């Protein structure tokens, strides 16, 4: 089993900065604002040849049980209980605060071994805080600078000691233990993203859940996982960064990403929200299927269409989950209105599947994953060149392109150049003169005849070589 290491401490002591350094990627959002991290984030990390699962947690705060900080505290407590040992971080420049003392007492009484870390220890300003940290009763502190990478050799020694004292088995050679890292919080590789032809069902399917704030994305993730993995509540914008978790559906592994809500660009003013939006866009870039959640109790807004259009532009397969559908009385009218709006506003991707669900009660959720897998299958669809050329000849004969300046446009050959999404190339003599309306005609007929509903399709016009070009030179 892989060793689990939880990073805990009060807000703004540098937990996410150290997490990013150990993981080797900027996965966790980092900002000067206290309390940026809310949900716990997991990823494979390495230090001194050791491979382990790092868990970034929300800052520890004392608060009532009814507030957001209490829900964040519950997630942190869960991470500590699951971890083999914890890294308790304090800000050496600020010294030991009453909050540090309070949570040090709690950690001392717990069963999880603890390594005390004095972060931001560069320079003389941190010396007093380092000496003061001995009073916490957690042993000798390790002085580091997560921002500048200082003191990591001393941290390696502390890791070795706690692993030896607690008889833990550590994985070595992190290059061979990357599968769990990729499946939990990593990015898809370029080679994997550009795979063409038949798709490998052994690879995990990457699914991102997007939508406006407070539509129920985290609630859906928790229901699918069967546990309170993500923080939920009536407050809008609880999720700040894209959190990836592993989920199994009928023995198929899925990388599921819960993302921050996307508001209209004009309303995004704060730097932290801009970082959250950028993290959501990053999740879209390497997702394969995107589930767009819409709140049935709220009108279908332009922002929902903007998100759907963004997914289509990225070339990802799209499934719409109509959440809180059980609260509506005029259900058929709502479904009809959404379908008509999509047909009118997104004509380039007709047939997007819409699945009515209730993420809170689970009603209809059993129909969501079959729709996701069907969208994924169509996204990987390949059509033979022979069928495409027969189709092209028949389609052009039925409705030929109008002549341009008295000259006929000849479409000679067609082939599928890639999948994910299905992309087709048509070779003709005058590509610049092909009307956009005729390209849409071909695309719609292609979608209809080869049964590719709800999937982005690319049709490229390519100019064929002049067979007399060499003789004319």
Automatic annotation (TrEMBL):
<dbReference type="GO" id="GO:0042254">
    <property type="term" value="P:ribosome biogenesis"/>
</dbReference>
<feature type="domain" description="EngA-type G">
    <location>
        <begin position="205"/>
        <end position="380"/>
    </location>
</feature>
<feature type="binding site">
    <location>
        <begin position="119"/>
        <end position="122"/>
    </location>
    <ligand>
        <name>GTP 1</name>
    </ligand>
</feature>
<dbReference type="InterPro" id="IPR027417">
    <property type="entry name" value="P-loop_NTPase"/>
</dbReference>
<dbReference type="InterPro" id="IPR016484">
    <property type="entry name" value="GTPase_Der"/>
</dbReference>
<feature type="binding site">
    <location>
        <begin position="211"/>
        <end position="218"/>
    </location>
    <ligand>
        <name>GTP 2</name>
    </ligand>
</feature>
<dbReference type="Pfam" id="PF14714">
    <property type="entry name" value="KH_dom-like"/>
</dbReference>
<dbReference type="Pfam" id="PF01926">
    <property type="entry name" value="MMR_HSR1"/>
</dbReference>
<dbReference type="InterPro" id="IPR015946">
    <property type="entry name" value="KH_dom-like_a/b"/>
</dbReference>
<feature type="binding site">
    <location>
        <begin position="9"/>
        <end position="16"/>
    </location>
    <ligand>
        <name>GTP 1</name>
    </ligand>
</feature>
<feature type="binding site">
    <location>
        <begin position="56"/>
        <end position="60"/>
    </location>
    <ligand>
        <name>GTP 1</name>
    </ligand>
</feature>
<dbReference type="InterPro" id="IPR032859">
    <property type="entry name" value="KH_dom-like"/>
</dbReference>
<keyword id="KW-0547">Nucleotide-binding</keyword>
<keyword id="KW-0342">GTP-binding</keyword>
<dbReference type="InterPro" id="IPR006073">
    <property type="entry name" value="GTP-bd"/>
</dbReference>
<comment type="similarity">
    <text>Belongs to the TRAFAC class TrmE-Era-EngA-EngB-Septin-like GTPase superfamily. EngA (Der) GTPase family.</text>
</comment>
<dbReference type="GO" id="GO:0005525">
    <property type="term" value="F:GTP binding"/>
</dbReference>
<keyword id="KW-0690">Ribosome biogenesis</keyword>
<dbReference type="InterPro" id="IPR031166">
    <property type="entry name" value="G_ENGA"/>
</dbReference>
<dbReference type="InterPro" id="IPR005225">
    <property type="entry name" value="Small_GTP-bd"/>
</dbReference>
<protein>
    <recommendedName>
        <fullName>GTPase Der</fullName>
    </recommendedName>
</protein>
<feature type="domain" description="EngA-type G">
    <location>
        <begin position="3"/>
        <end position="167"/>
    </location>
</feature>
<feature type="binding site">
    <location>
        <begin position="323"/>
        <end position="326"/>
    </location>
    <ligand>
        <name>GTP 2</name>
    </ligand>
</feature>
<keyword id="KW-0677">Repeat</keyword>
<comment type="function">
    <text>GTPase that plays an essential role in the late steps of ribosome biogenesis.</text>
</comment>
<feature type="binding site">
    <location>
        <begin position="258"/>
        <end position="262"/>
    </location>
    <ligand>
        <name>GTP 2</name>
    </ligand>
</feature>
<comment type="subunit">
    <text>Associates with the 50S ribosomal subunit.</text>
</comment>
């Amino acid at each position: 089993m892989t060793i689990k290491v939880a990073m805990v401490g009060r807000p703004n002591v540098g937990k996410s900065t150290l997490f990013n350094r150990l993981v080797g990627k900027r996965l966790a959002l980092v900002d000067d604002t206290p309390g940026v991290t809310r949900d716990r984030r997991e990823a494979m990390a390495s230090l001194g040849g050791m491979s382990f699962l790092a868990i970034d947690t929300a800052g520890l705060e004392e608060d009532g049980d009814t507030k957001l900080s209490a829900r964040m505290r519950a997630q942190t407590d869960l991470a500590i209980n699951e971890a083999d040992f914890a890294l308790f971080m304090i800000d050496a420049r600020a010294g030991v605060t009453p909050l540090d003392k309070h949570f040090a007492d709690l950690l001392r009484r717990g069963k999880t071994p603890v390594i005390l870390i004095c972060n931001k220890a560069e320079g003389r300003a941190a010396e007093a805080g380092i000496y003061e940290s001995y009073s916490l009763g957690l042993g000798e502190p390790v002085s580091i600078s997560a921002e500048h990478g200082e003191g990591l050799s001393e941290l390696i020694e502390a890791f070795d000691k706690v692993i030896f004292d607690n008889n833990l088995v550590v994985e070595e050679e992190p290059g061979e233990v990357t599968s769990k890292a990729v499946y939990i919080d990593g990015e898809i590789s370029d080679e994997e993203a550009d795979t063409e032809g038949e798709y490998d069902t052994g690879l995990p399917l990457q699914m991102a859940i997007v939508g406006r704030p407070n539509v129920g994305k985290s609630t859906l993730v928790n229901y699918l996982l069967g546990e309170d993995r993500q923080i939920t509540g009536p407050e809008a914008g609880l999720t700040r960064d894209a959190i990836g978790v592993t989920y199994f559906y009928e023995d198929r592994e899925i990388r599921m990403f819960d993302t921050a809500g996307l508001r209209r660009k004009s309303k995004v003013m704060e730097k932290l929200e801009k970082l959250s939006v950028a993290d959501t866009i990053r999740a879209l870039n390497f997702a394969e299927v995107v589930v767009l959640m819409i709140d049935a109790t709220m009108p279908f807004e332009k922002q929902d269409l903007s998100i759907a259009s963004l997914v289509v532009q990225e070339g990802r397969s799209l499934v719409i989950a109509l959440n809180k559908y059980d609260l509506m009385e005029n259900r058929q009218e709502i479904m009809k209105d959404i379908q008509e709006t999509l047909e009118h506003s997104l004509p380039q991707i007709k047939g997007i599947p819409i699945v009515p669900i209730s993420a809170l009660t689970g009603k209809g959720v059993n129909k969501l994953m079959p729709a996701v897998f069907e969208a994924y299958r169509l996204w990987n669809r390949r059509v033979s060149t022979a069928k495409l050329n027969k189709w092209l000849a028949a389609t052009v004969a039925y409705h030929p392109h109008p002549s341009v300046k008295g000259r006929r446009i000849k479409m000679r050959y067609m082939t599928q150049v890639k999948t994910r999404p299905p992309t087709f190339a048509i070779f003709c003599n005058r590509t610049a003169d092909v009307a956009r309306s005729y390209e849409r005609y071909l695309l719609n007929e292609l979608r209809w005849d080869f049964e590719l509903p709800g999937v982005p399709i690319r049709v490229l016009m390519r100019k064929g070589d002049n067979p007399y070009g060499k003789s004319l030179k």
